[in-house]
């Protein structure tokens, strides 16, 4: 019903405009026009009144000015009946009615309709205002009685107003009475309600209050969802203000009654909470670092390079938290509350190393004073509680180690799930071309060079897709390609094996050197392991790149192969390193046994000597530096990892400086005096290697996770490294890299990187957990010294710090009889969840299939319908041409007649209302299309001016079409 | 706050924050950018809603839009008059829709408007051709363009009218994996 009414009102406009155009010719209605003008003036006066009432609206004043202008124009033209057109001009500017008309014609109805609606609302308000004014002294009733009265009033004024207005009012009534409406109409509705209830909110019945409450809630919802509405900003702002005013006003009313203080309080708190949330949000976004830097890179290099930096920032965030954990709960307490440096042997540099402990070379290797500090595992004491806080140091150390890993798992998995949610929808290939067309441009690009590359890559991707589509891609020599691919994989495997062996060999050799003592060897021999690992990491990917040229894969596939190979290389290297380290640990433990034995004999001899020499004298105080001690394999592991990280970082930075910066400088300046074009030719500038950098970052993180337990300083070191990386790489990328020629999209590979990170996390926690669980801690260093296993600290805490029943419960809960069924239950739950998810997936596929067949059927049906419509159209055209001929015959007279009819119709209505002022409601309601109106010409006008695209034979069918867009836009 | 000069009142800033996906700081920055485009036209004081619009030519020259093949369409579809003159409100609106946090649905609506070159509420062949030619700098042959257009319409058209209505477009674009990541401009 309301839709119909909207359509009719549009017809009215068309007619109005049409008539206005014809009006100059029609001079016999001068009298009518005069009357009309008076009425219009009066109406403007009303509007002025109204304006005063709504004085705080700034817009109104502007509208007022326009109105004055319009008034002048109005009189000049004597176009009293162009009220509708004028309303347009009021909102859209006065020069634009032609354009508006055109817009209506071209089907841009959504916007126009909105305007009409707005205008209508305003007018109805206005009328109501009038009614209220008139009714001010009269008594007010509620509910339907009031409505009726207003109807009467409406009738009264309508009698003096023009018919169109009455009609509009009627439309409004329809809108008001129908409950299920579109949102904007609801707004209108509410506004009207508010107008009605404005006067005495406290005298409302409970149902009405309930309604009002609902309305207020709805408004609030509207305010919340406003930013997601596809409206113009102006409309949003107006709606916001109106809604806020509405809420403000009626929330107060709701809060006034008895027992509603709680409501008022809740509302107030909600408001405060909102404010706080907004401030917090502002604060949070202000805290996100490097936003502008990343934006700049994004606009230069597109989203793929930027994705690396976003990933880097994300890593930085995680490392910050890890750093906070280890720093706040392990390092600082030990440094502040633990026993100071030099108090016990494990906290002192041994006598033999004292001379060189402060040398830079030693410190750079994290030996000397660095080794005997909070940076490494060995420094921590096994005292159960330290300081006046009774801080449980060993327990804290253990829990932080576990917490680090647990937190990392949580974050990675959560991010992966979120990413999967975001991009998980698009897995099917059914929209290949449309996706390419509509989503391949990266809106972030703001650099001409990148844009050119992007254009080129889009073009190639289209060409490839077309080729694939035509299936004319012929494999010239499938055997050769196969052979080359096998050969390439073989070569890569050789490389991997070779690098693995090299590392193993080097680590073994370094152990031999270590046994000999470090001083006898050169710098290279001392740093061989790290250097070899870094160099392998640098050169092998290049080798892989060369090898992959043999394979002749599609670039995307080639990239994945390349990534996979680098991943395998890194992983292989890391694990060889770990295996070698394990060997070393075992060696150290052997050594430890010997030392332990030696210490007992040494202590015994010491004791004997003191006893024999002077038994009564004071006991000899032995300097802690002189006490012999074990090798402390944990610190050794920590040191290895720290050295690895340092050398890795150094290699990254040096490659960056030489490979990117120096190359760029040479290419730039030697280009002036060189035989060929260096910039376009061989060396050229380097590209930013996103995948390699991401992989490097991931492996670096893996090493951090692995080593963090034995070297609490690792997260701190990593934070520093990432921080420097951020600035250095940002600078390098902006100053010496060129955009990639093949610009890959980042989003697809986002979860790919995350999955890699997860794999690395798992693989790197494995050895750490293995060492913690199986190898007993050193006897004289670290927080767990003296225990059989590191996790004994939990048991110890349970026994001594918790009440007895708790440990009893714990021990009974951890017996196999309970644990096994529990594990079984978990396995069952996993199995159940997996099978349900599988069935859901199947159902999903089924539904998709159904949908597809449905679509195809629909297509067929629609095609048939279109054919039929075409035939009908032709018929209608024939008919139309016939009628047109008829029309031509009595064209002039018809137009006059039409105008006449319109006028008669309105005046008759006026007359009618004037006479029957006593009982108007029923006629007003039924007044839809008066019988006096000639329906045929209306239809023609609609067909010709309203929407030329719609078939004249299908006026009904065209209506939903016209509404389709706005109604879709609303959700 | 610590601004040297009041550009907006607090209420205005709050209203903008309610209506857009921006924070207070970003709105001020947007105003800065808008002001930068035409310092002599745009006032620094927006407390009384000055009526000022910048023409398309100025806005299109922003570095964020300069390389975009659809820059004119973007600006046009966000302007109230369809000609590309943007008031500050519309300017903010534009970047709000293109911001990272805007919902997929909202983005889809405006993407549709942008690709609808002839503003007839349908993406017809003509629109697609224009889109393609802008995407590839007219390096595809007419036959290829024809083929791609035909294929795209075939893929996405659900009601068989040989053009894409918004429903078709939305259905297609909401499944696109790259739409959210590429249809955004960081300001």
Description:
The complex is a heterodimer of chains A (971) and B (187). The N terminus and C terminus of chain A are likely disordered. In chain A, 75% of the residues lie in helices and 0% in strands. With 971 residues, chain A is an all-alpha fold. Chain A is globular, with a radius of gyration of 42 Å. The relative contact order of chain A is 0.08. Chain B is mainly α. Chain B is built from 11 helices and 2 strands; from the N terminus they run ααβαααβαααααα. Chain B has a two-stranded antiparallel ribbon. In chain B, helix 5 packs across helix 7. The longest helix of chain B is centred in the last third of the chain and has 15 residues. Chain B is elongated, with a radius of gyration of 18 Å. Classes of the chains: A mainly alpha (971), B mainly alpha (187). Chain A: Keywords: Membrane, Transmembrane, Transmembrane helix. Chain A: It holds the Pfam family TMC. Chain A: GO terms for molecular function: mechanosensitive monoatomic ion channel activity.
Task: Give the helix/strand layout.
The complex is a heterodimer of chains A (971) and B (187).
Chain A: H1 2-23, H2 30-53, H3 58-77, H4 83-92, H5 97-105, H6 109-134, H7 143-160, H8 163-177, H9 183-197, H10 206-225, H11 233-256, H12 261-287, H13 291-337, H14 360-364, H15 368-371, H16 393-423, H17 432-439, H18 448-470, H19 478-516, H20 523-526, H21 528-548, H22 555-613, H23 633-670, E1 686-687, H24 690-707, H25 714-736, E2 737-738, H26 747-774, H27 792-801, H28 804-813, H29 816-889, H30 891-915, H31 921-925, H32 935-946, H33 955-969
Parallel strand pairs in A: 1-2
Chain B: H1 10-19, H2 24-37, E1 53-54, H3 56-60, H4 63-66, H5 71-78, E2 86-87, H6 88-97, H7 104-115, H8 125-136, H9 142-156, H10 166-173, H11 179-182
Antiparallel strand pairs in B: 1-2
Helix pairs in contact in B: 5-7, 7-10, 8-9
């Amino acid at each position: 019903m309301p839709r119909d009414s909207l359509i009719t009102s549009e017809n009215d406009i068309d007619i109005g405009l049409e008539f206005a155009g014809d009006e100059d010719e029609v001079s016999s209605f001068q009298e009518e026009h005069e009357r009309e003008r008076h009425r219009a003036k009066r109406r403007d006066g009303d509007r002025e009144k109204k304006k005063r009432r709504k004085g705080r609206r700034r817009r109104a004043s502007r509208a007022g000015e326009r109105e004055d202008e319009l008034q002048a124009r109005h009189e000049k033209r004597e176009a009293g009946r162009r009220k509708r057109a004028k309303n347009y001009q009021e909102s859209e500017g006065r020069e634009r009615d032609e354009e508006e008309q055109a817009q209506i014609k071209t089907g841009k109805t959504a916007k126009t309709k909105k305007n009409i609606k707005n205008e209508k609302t305003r007018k109805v308000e206005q009328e109501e205002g009038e009614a209220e004014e008139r009714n001010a002294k009269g008594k007010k009733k509620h509910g339907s009685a009031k409505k009726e009265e207003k109807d009467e009033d409406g009738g009264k004024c309508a009698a003096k107003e023009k018919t169109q207005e009455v009609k509009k009012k009627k439309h409004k009534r329809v809108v008001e009475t129908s409950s299920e409406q579109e949102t904007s109409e609801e707004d209108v509705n509410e506004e009207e309600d508010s107008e009605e209830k404005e006067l005495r909110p406290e005298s409302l019945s409970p149902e009405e209050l309930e309604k009002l409450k609902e309305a207020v809630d709805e408004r609030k919802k509207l305010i919340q969802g406003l930013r997601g509405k596809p409206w113009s900003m102006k409309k949003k702002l107006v709606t916001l203000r109106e809604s806020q005013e509405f809420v403000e006003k009626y929330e107060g009313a709701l809060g006034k009654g008895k027992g509603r203080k709680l409501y008022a309080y809740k509302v107030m708190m909600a408001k405060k909470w909102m404010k706080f949330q907004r401030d917090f949000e502002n604060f949070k976004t202000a805290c996100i670092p490097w936003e502008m830097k990343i934006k700049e890179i994004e606009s230069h290099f597109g989203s793929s390079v930027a994705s690396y930096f976003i990933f880097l920032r994300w890593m930085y965030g995680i490392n910050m938290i890890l750093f906070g954990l280890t720093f706040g709960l392990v390092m600082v307490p030990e440094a502040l509350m633990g026993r100071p440096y030099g108090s016990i042997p494990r906290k002192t540099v041994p006598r033999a190393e004292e001379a060189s402990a402060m040398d830079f070379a030693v410190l750079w290797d994290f030996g000397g004073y660095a080794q005997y500090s909070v940076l490494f595992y060995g420094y921590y004491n096994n005292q159960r509680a330290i300081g006046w806080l009774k801080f449980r140091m060993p327990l804290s150390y253990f829990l932080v180690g576990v917490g680090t890993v647990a937190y990392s798992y949580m974050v990675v998995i959560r991010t992966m799930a979120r990413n999967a949610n975001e991009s998980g929808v698009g897995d099917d290939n059914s929209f290949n071309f449309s996706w390419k067309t509509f989503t391949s441009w990266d809106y972030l690009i703001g650099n001409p060079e990148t844009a050119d590359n992007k254009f080129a890559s889009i073009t190639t991707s289209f060409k490839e897709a077309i080729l694939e589509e035509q299936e004319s891609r012929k494999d010239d020599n499938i055997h050769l390609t196969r052979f080359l691919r096998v050969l390439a994989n073989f070569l890569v495997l050789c490389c991997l094996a070779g690098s693995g062996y090299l590392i193993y060999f080097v680590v073994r050799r370094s152990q031999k050197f270590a046994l000999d003592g470090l001083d006898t060897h050169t710098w290279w021999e001392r740093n061989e392991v790290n250097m070899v690992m870094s160099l392998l990491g640098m050169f092998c990917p290049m080798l892989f790149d060369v090898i992959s040229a043999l394979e002749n894969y599609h670039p995307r596939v080639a990239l994945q192969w390349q990534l996979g190979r680098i991943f395998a290389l890194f992983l292989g290297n890391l694990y060889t390193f770990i295996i070698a380290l394990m060997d070393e640990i075992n060696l150290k433990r052997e050594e430890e046994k010997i030392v332990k034995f030696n210490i007992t004999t040494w202590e015994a001899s010491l004791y004997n000597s003191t006893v024999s020499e002077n038994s009564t004298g004071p006991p000899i105080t032995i300097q802690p530096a002189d006490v012999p001690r074990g090798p402390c394999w944990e610190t050794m592991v920590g040191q290895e990892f720290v050295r690895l990280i340092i050398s890795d970082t150094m290699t990254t930075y040096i490659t960056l400086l030489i490979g990117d910066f120096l190359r760029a400088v040479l290419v730039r300046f030697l280009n002036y005096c060189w035989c060929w074009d260096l910039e376009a030719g061989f060396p050229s500038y380097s590209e930013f290697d996103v995948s390699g950098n991401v992989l490097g970052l991931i492996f670096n993180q893996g090493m951090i996770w692995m080593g963090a337990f034995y070297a609490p300083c690792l997260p701190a070191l990593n934070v520093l490294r990432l921080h420097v990386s951020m600035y250095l790489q940002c600078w390098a990328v902006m100053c010496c890299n060129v955009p990639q020629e093949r610009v890959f999209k980042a989003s697809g590979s986002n979860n790919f990187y995350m999955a890699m990170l997860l794999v690395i996390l798992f693989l790197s926690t494995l050895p750490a957990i293995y060492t913690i669980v199986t190898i007993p801690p050193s006897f004289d260093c670290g927080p767990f010294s003296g225990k059989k296993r590191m996790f004994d600290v939990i048991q110890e805490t349970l026994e001594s710090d918790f009440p007895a029943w708790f440990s009893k419960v714990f021990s009974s809960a951890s017996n196999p009889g309970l644990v096994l069924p529990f594990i079984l239950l978990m396995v069952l739950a996993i199995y159940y969840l997996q099978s349900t998810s599988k069935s859901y997936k199947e159902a999903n596929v089924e539904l998709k299939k159904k949908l597809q067949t449905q679509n195809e059927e629909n297509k067929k049906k629609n095609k048939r319908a279109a054919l039929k419509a075409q035939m009908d159209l032709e018929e209608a055209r024939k008919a139309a041409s016939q009628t047109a001929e008829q029309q031509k015959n009595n064209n002039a007279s018809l137009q006059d007649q039409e105008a006449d009819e319109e006028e008669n119709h309105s005046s008759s209505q006026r007359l009618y209302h004037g006479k029957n002022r006593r009982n108007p409601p029923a006629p007003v309601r039924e007044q839809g299309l008066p019988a006096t109106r000639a329906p045929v010409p209306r239809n023609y006008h609609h067909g010709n001016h309203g929407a030329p695209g719609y078939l004249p034979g299908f006026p009904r069918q065209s209506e939903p079409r016209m509404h389709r867009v706005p109604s879709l836009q609303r959700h | 706050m610590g601004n040297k000069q009041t550009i907006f009142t607090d209420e205005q800033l709050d209203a903008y924050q309610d209506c857009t996906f921006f924070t207070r700081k970003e709105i001020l920055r947007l105003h800065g950018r808008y002001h930068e485009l035409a310092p002599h036209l745009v006032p620094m004081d927006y407390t009384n809603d000055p009526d000022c619009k910048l023409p398309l030519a100025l806005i299109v020259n922003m570095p964020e839009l300069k390389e975009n093949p659809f820059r004119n369409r973007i600006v046009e579809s966000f302007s109230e008059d369809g000609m590309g003159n943007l008031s500050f409100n519309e300017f903010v609106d534009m970047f709000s829709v293109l911001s990272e946090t805007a919902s997929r649905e909202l983005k889809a609506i405006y993407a549709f408007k942008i690709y609808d070159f002839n503003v007839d509420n349908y993406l017809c062949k003509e629109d697609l051709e224009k889109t393609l030619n802008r995407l590839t700098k007219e390096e595809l042959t007419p036959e290829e363009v024809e083929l791609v257009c035909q294929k795209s319409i075939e893929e996405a058209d659900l009601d068989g009218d040989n053009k894409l209505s918004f429903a078709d477009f939305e259905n297609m674009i909401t499944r696109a994996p790259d739409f959210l990541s590429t249809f955004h401009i960081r300001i």
